[in-house]
Amino acid sequence: MIKDNPRDLADLVIKPIITEKATRLLEQNKYVFDVALKATKPEIKAAIEGLFGVSVIGVNTARPPRKKRRVGKFIGYKSLYKRAIVTLEEGDTIGLFPDV
Fold first, then answer.
1. How do residues 2-37 score in pLDDT, each as one tens digit?
2. If we measure between CA atoms, which residue out of 75, 77, 44, 49 comes closest to residue 59?
């Protein structure tokens, strides 16, 4: 398991997702992140709590199917990814948009 080293937990969270659907989820205090394929829900929870100093209520994950892509005569697939929707406790926030 990766829980042993807190530096490894930071490597599980790749980037936050800023899409139209993700910004609608912000109203419900839910944040969307791209995470490593091997990450489990308890590891994602520990990583978010450690990185941002918030308390996580729940973690939902999704691994969409691979999509076929064609470039000229070559057929390939888009790379796999895993998304995590993290629900935070009331009053906790993550500053995705720093004040500019």
1. 556 767 888 899 999 999 999 999 999 999 999 999
2. 44
